[in-house]
Amino acid sequence: MWHYFPEHYMWSYQIVRMFSQAHFGGGEVNEILEAANNITLGDTNSFHHAWMDSGNRTLTVANEALDSENIETARAAFLRASNYIRTAEFFLQPDDARKIPTYLKGVESFRKGAEMLDNPPNAVQIPFENSFLPGYYFAVPGKKESPLVIMFGGLDSTAEELYFGPAQLLNERGISLLAVDGPGQGGALRLNHITSRYDYNVAGTAAYDWAIGNLDVDPERVGIMAVSMGGYMAARSAAFEPRFKACALWGAVYDYNSVWAKRPDNHPLAKILQHVIGTDNMEDARKRLDRFNLRGVAEKISMPTYIIHGEDDRQVSVENAYNLYNDLTCPRWLKVVSKSSPGSAHCQVDNVTETYSMYDWLKVQLNA
After folding, report:
1. Which residues does residue 247 pair with via DSSP β-bridges, in sequence order?
2. Which of 180-184, 202-206, 262-266, 287-291 has the lowest mean pLDDT?
3. Which of residues 51, 84, 114 is at a domain's end?
4. CA 50 – CA 46 distance, rounded (Å)
5. H-state helical runs in the chain
6. How far is the C-alpha of 175 from the C-alpha of 224, rounded, in Å?
7. Rounded-to-integer distance, Cα 194 and Cα 164, Å
8. For residue 140, is it within any domain?
9. What are the DSSP calls for 65-112, one per residue?
10. β 131-138/217-227 pair status
11. Over the stretch 112-145, which tens digit does the pLDDT of each residue have?
């Protein structure tokens, strides 16, 4: 993976992540580079301000275009702005007074842009334990009883972010997408205070039941998919919900505790992790993570399962993919992107086209 900051992997990763989403309207390369140029390495406030400045400038473009009834320009600018603002929120700590307003501003920007799409998504609320999981339904236009993929993001993802790639790649293959902020994610965490859980299958089944009861989809062609930490979430959901017909893991997570065992208590995401799983210290967080593994679970997955993982993944080692693949007893596919090739970083942000084979596989499995 190319490093904008040679001495700082995590911040370089966020910039490359933005590049990968620029393919799908989530940014413009030179705007991204300009924001990166305004970051002072190691200064999280400068990280926030650089991306907020980009977001606000792009919002100005969007609003001026909207006032002039230039809908296409406004739409593109609102969507880019939403992703810049999402990135501005990324390293803000849970107790930072700017976190929720920044999050809400990004959501508002996304929705303004999304409602101008030729095929706008529907914002949804999936009932969940006296509250709800927010999300979006990206339907294939003009297709009755379409196949569906239910998708969760990762530790730090939001449902809005899943438009910039997954929604578009699935729709063009004839598959609708239900993008969900599951427990510990997006609005489910920030607004509804629903923290993550090891038995993520409860959320997976809730999303499945709601989908077949409320959406024009074929209940016999519903798959589960997730990215990054979501590789645990989707696998766990598949293991305990046999009605899913396919499971796609965009990054395997066999043992999430092992990921954090290699990270210090003062890791940049440590407090965010605590917030996600509902603790106020790393000792308790690590204890809770003891149950976030697929030992004795993977072999329960009955539907065809596809895993893609980068050999040079520095966040979740490739051993997670091999361990999970070896435990599977269902029909299984494993693609490991060699570290000698672009796309070998975490979740292929350094060459998102390596993931296209996963979407092609889903098209076959769900008979799209």
Report:
1. 224, 305
2. 262-266
3. 114
4. 6
5. 9-22, 29-37, 44-67, 71-89, 99-114, 166-171, 186-190, 201-214, 230-240, 256-261, 270-277, 282-289, 319-327, 356-365
6. 12
7. 25
8. yes
9. HHHTT-HHHHHHHHHHHHHHHHHHHTT--TT-TTHHHHHHHHHHHHHH
10. unpaired
11. 999 999 999 999 999 999 999 999 999 999 989 9
Question: At 325, which CATH number?
Answer: 3.40.50.1820
At 221-272, the pLDDT tens digits run 999 999 999 999 999 999 999 999 999 999 999 999 999 998 999 988 899 9
CA 171, distance to chain mean position in Å, is 17
DSSP per residue, 343-363: T-SGGGTT-GGGGHHHHHHHH
82, 228, 237, 317: which is the annotated catalytic residue? 228
> What's the angle, vertex CA 252, arms to CA 247 and CA 253, rounded to 5?
115
Q: For residues 154 and 210, what is the distance between their CA atoms, to the nearest angstrom?
A: 21
pTM above the 0.90 mark? Answer: yes
The residue segments making up the domain with residue 290 are 122-365
Q: Give 271's Cβ-side CA count (13 Å radius).
A: 9
Told to judge if 340 belongs to the known catalytic residues of this protein, a careful annotator would answer no
Sign of torsion over alpha carbons 159, 160, 166, 170: positive
Residues 297 and 150 occupy one common structural domain: yes
Dihedral angle of Cα 171, 146, 180, 91, to the nearest 10 degrees: -10
DSSP state of 139: P
Between CA 212 and CA 202 the distance in angstroms is 16
Which letter does DSSP use for residue 253 in this model? -
Contact assessment for residue 297 and residue 181, using Cβ atoms and an 8 Å cutoff: no
Please report, for the domain that includes residue 74, its CATH number.
1.20.1440.110
In a domain, 244, yes or no: yes
Structure confidence by residue, pLDDT tens digits, 56-108? 999 999 999 999 999 999 999 999 999 999 999 999 999 999 999 999 999 99
Q: Using the 8-state DSSP alphabet, how is residue 40 labeled?
A: P
**Dist CA 230 CA 235 (whole Å):** 8
